[in-house]
Design brief:
mainly alpha; 14 helices
């Protein structure tokens, strides 16, 4: 009987090398599939135990088949699931167990991961019948992404540094200048967290006003930089040149910690959350909220969707089109101001 970890490892390589998925997406898909097999193995062992207690349920080959899962009845340690015997009913059993435990968006991702795995197995001719062929993703209520108003974003970026010095002091200058630059990157250029933390000095073209980033699917794109972003990069570079040399490291990355390493995604999330508290804007925003704000404000000021798509690095225009919903208020305001029957 085949060992499941081999298939999962092959699946990870397929996602990473053939599909060019990010490491975070690969790990998420892999984790979802592993959870499915943990469930199937627990079911398998439970049925094997029942088989041993009630020989009437076992056939002459000391095997039991329940819900199309083959379970070895011998005494060895090989309790692996026969991947070719997994049926739709087995997967639905797992999903029904997860239904009340996770949100619909998480359930949808689990289904998407499982479908991708079995589609991969079918594509490689490892299985003859695909048990997920008829599985559908649950309908998810689309929520508008949270974003800041123009005034809120302006206040954050204009005052974070001064208020941080006021509350933390010069002792934290390293963190304050770096964090201020992170906020500017998120809102000023709409970068993803994963793109910001891997920006290198060689990627910057400050005189020309752009930065090269490596986005999802290892796709490189050019992102414009605002004058404010360029100025904050220069301030950070000047500080780094004068002080970081004393810390005995040299890093190729622009955004680093005091050990010279690039930051983690979790650290950036914490920085954004704390920035709102420091500036007295008690909104629970994430780095992605600032990216949403970047796109929304561009659209509100006349930028076309195709240009926004390029700047955000979206593969499909449909992903960018959600920002048209965010501008509904502006649309209504224009209507009320312009249509003769709307004027009171």
């Amino acid at each position: 009987m085949e060992k499941q970890p081999d298939y999962i490892a092959e699946f990870e390589n397929y996602l990473r090398l053939d599909k060019n998925y990010s490491i975070n997406t690969v790990m998420a898909y892999s984790s979802d599939v592993k959870e499915l097999f943990i469930y199937l193995k627990n079911v398998s062992e439970s049925r094997k135990k029942n088989c041993g207690q009630n020989n009437g349920d076992c056939d002459n080959n000391n095997k039991k088949k329940t819900d199309n899962i083959t379970i070895n009845g011998d005494d060895d340690d090989d309790n692996d699931i026969d991947i070719k015997e997994i049926a739709e009913i087995d997967i639905r059993g797992y999903l029904s167990k997860e239904y009340d435990k996770v949100k619909k968006v998480s359930l949808a991702r689990k289904i998407e991961s499982i479908k991708a795995f079995f589609n991969f197995l079918e594509k490689r001719h490892i299985i003859d019948k695909n048990p997920v062929f008829l599985l559908e993703l649950p309908k998810i209520e689309k929520k508008l992404p949270f974003f800041l108003t123009v005034n809120e974003a302006k206040f954050l970026l204009d005052n974070y540094r001064s208020l941080s010095f006021e509350k933390k002091g010069v002792k934290y200058e390293f963190e304050i200048l770096r964090n201020d630059l992170i906020l500017e990157f998120l809102y000023g250029s709409g970068l993803r967290v994963s793109e910001i933390i891997f920006v290198k000095y060689k990627d910057l073209a400050l005189n020309e006003g752009y930065v090269k980033v490596l986005g999802k699917g290892s796709k490189e794109r050019i992102i414009p930089l605002t004058i404010q972003t360029v100025n904050k990069i220069q301030k950070w570079k000047n500080y780094a040149g004068a002080h970081i040399a004393n810390l005995n490291f040299k890093s190729e990355f622009l955004i680093i910690n005091k050990k010279g390493n690039h930051l983690t995604r979790r650290t950036v999330h914490r920085i954004v959350h704390e920035s709102m508290l420091i500036t007295g804007q008690f909104k629970n925003i994430s780095p992605h909220s600032l990216r949403h704000s970047f796109a929304t404000h561009l659209l509100d000021n006349g930028a076309d969707l195709r240009s926004i798509q390029d700047m955000l690095g979206h593969s499909n225009l449909s992903t960018t089109e959600k920002y048209t919903h965010l501008s509904l208020k502006k649309l209504l305001d224009v209507y009320k101001q312009s249509h003769p029957h709307a004027v009171k």
